[in-house]
User: Fold this.
Amino acid sequence: MPTINGCSPRPLDRLQAEFLRDGDRLTLRFRNSSGWVDTFLSSWFALWTVGCVGILIKIVQEPSLYLCLFAIPFWVSWLFVGGILAALFWGRDRFDLNPEGVTSIWSLLSITSTHPIPLKELLAFEVQEEQDSEGNFTCQIAAVSLGRGFTFGSHLPRPEQEWLVHELNQQLQELQRLAGICRPLKLPVNDDYRDCGAPSDSHWTFREEPGGVSFEERGKLSLLSVLGLLFINGFWNGMLSVFIIGGLMGLAPEEQVKVGAEWWELFWFLVPFELIGLVMFIGLLATLLEPFRVTRWSFSPGDITQRTTRLGLSPGWRSHYSCEGTLQMTVRPDLGTARRDVFGNLLTLQRGEGQYYGLQFVSDRNQDICAIRDLTLGEAQWMKGRLQAYGRVLHQGGADWT
Assistant:
């Protein structure tokens, strides 16, 4: 169990989270909110609502395309902040640890989202630190598993986080002992995994093919990503359309069409902003098409092929890697999965044990050949086990898989 300076965390007199223990079930309940954030956003939302209502009245009285485009950024911001306030005031988080595993349940009125982790895949609970691009650290509780874990409790004070982690790990160890699940203090990431199965939440499937095997992953639509990109596109491109419709096309009320050098000056001034808006729109389309993305890694004697397609099309995203001799497969923490924004800028960097791994392929000359990245620990171990099991088939005329 986790300790602080070799000692177990001492009980706290008062908890922000609601902590309930009922036999072999442990439940945490709390809502993610902050007093000053609630107050600031509520005040901003009230003033912004007055402005949005005023714009709506103006459009009803004098309907025009220009006014509708002008209103889009205001209405999009109003919906976005309104959703945040609804989550702060009425959103609830609950975490249940029981003999079946742990389940994260987030609810907002009648909307519910769950994230279950089976007991056999749950590794531990720990306090994790994340560093943003400005060097600031935030702490949160992480449920670490062979599959995709989850985090919670970032708004709790550090002593409470450490005490909750201690209690959760005690309960987890007892449940796994009763279920006959034995976990070493530190799991080896490289071993023989021929008997490993894929995690229950894995998006990868295994296929036997003539002359080899393959792993295939299908993309999954992220509702939060879609909503976030809709807000960004609505705000940025809505503001941009006001300048295009009003300044370049002259459709703004009581405004003359710009001509000559003044028109060209505005045209070239807007080009960088239009390119940024185009990139945002392409990002939105790519996110909407994510369910139609298929990534396939094929393994045959002496050859590894990676291919990514969308809607059955493959615009050049295909890579071949030749391999001979003895091929080492190594499960490594994937340092390339630090969180980045849509432009690739670093947002956060997780310290300590990461939850994403890569399956690295290394030649007998100790040269890196390729790697399957963005895997969970369980996925990387399962893939290595499948390739170890089919190593004799793949070795015919090619590499020896170890």
Observations:
- The chain has a mean pLDDT of 79.
